[in-house]
Give the backbone structure.
Amino acid sequence: MDVVKDILAALRLTGGVFLDAEFTAPWCVTARIGPDDCGPHLPRPHNIIAYHYIAAGSLVVELEGAAPLSAGAGDIVVLPRNDAHRLASAPGLKPVHAERLVQSAAAGGLARIVHGGGGAETRIICGFLGNDAASDPVVASLPRLMKLGVTEGLAGDWVEKSIRFAAGELAGGTVPSSTVIARVAELLFLEAVRRYLGSLPAGQDFWSAGLRDAAVGRAIELLNRDMRRPWTAAELAREAGLSRSAFAERFTRVMGLPPMQYLTALRLEAGARRLRESRATVAGVAYDVGYESEAAFSRAFKRHFGAAPAAWRKGQ
């Protein structure tokens, strides 16, 4: 079983494309995706992941406290925690805020930016991914800035063709292609996370360490596979081949929280997704994620999300 795949699939990312930008050197803009950018596409997500697809040309991405990152045509630049950043034709240029440059979209089209000094051209398609998890250890463990070339890997050819086709359709004002790009961007983000985790030395990152550690990884796999089971720390320890105390200490050290707290968070996040995406009753959701009573689920849910399940669902 591929536990990484299951954990990433549980993120339930949604997203959209909101901006088509054309720049000519020299140029530099500051950017950060806000709630208004997400609004036309989906309800405001708890976590926003920003991305820029470089359709043509090249650029430099600058974050405070980080070295500039260069990217070119065919790259997707991902900001997992939606940090404020600068996009530029070269480092050190004076920025203009991107919001001041946005031209409102025509009916059914994308907002646009056309800006720069008339030199070398760069075209960017900007979008976002989001999820409503109150806490997300996968995203929290990622670097602030990631780059993925769509031509890399075995699937690179079809990915590149898909996103370039969609980019071309967007240039002609074809609306459905924004959905194509958003879906491809989701796949690329998941692939970027997999590659990042796979590239880390054992123990460098807590989430990667958890998946690499045989005992902790086994426990994570079991909990994600069957969260409804009434697990105990002792049962997980036996499955992991450790004593209860040694397992609890190891899991907590690697993951940052005890195994039963991890299970609680896993159940509540799954419960929130079911409340939002289905018409199941609160009692039915409680049972589906492993709670023996609606009351117990509701108490835990309110502690975690700050609202009772029914009220939280109504707000969604």
